[in-house]
Amino acid sequence: MELVEDTDCLIRKACPVVALSLSSLIQMEARKNILTPSFVKLLTDEMMVRHEAYCSLGPFIVTFAVPSVTELFYNENGILHLVTRDGCEFRYVCKLTGLFFSVIWRIDMEL
Fold this sequence. Notes:
Blueprint: H1 9-23, H2 28-42, H3 47-62, E1 70-74, E2 80-84, E3 88-97, E4 100-109
Antiparallel strand pairs: 1-2, 2-3, 3-4
Helix pairs in contact: 1-2, 1-3
């Protein structure tokens, strides 16, 4: 995660997406001790980097969920899904509108 210190903002902009992918693959201790401090740094970076970090924040947090309660996966379109044991499905969407961005979790109930 040394790249969060890179002088090129395009390199730093890619870091949240990479951190999100890594977070799904590594042990919880590494998530807490290595990825989280780096991710927090990206949340305070310049706007382009910060936007990417905030778009990835929700899914990043979800990777800390207890596996016995939730299931985290990417569908065939690359959209991150979180499904609870009772069938509630959350889909991650990030949109940029002008200077503002919003992170949306869509909820689908399968009852």
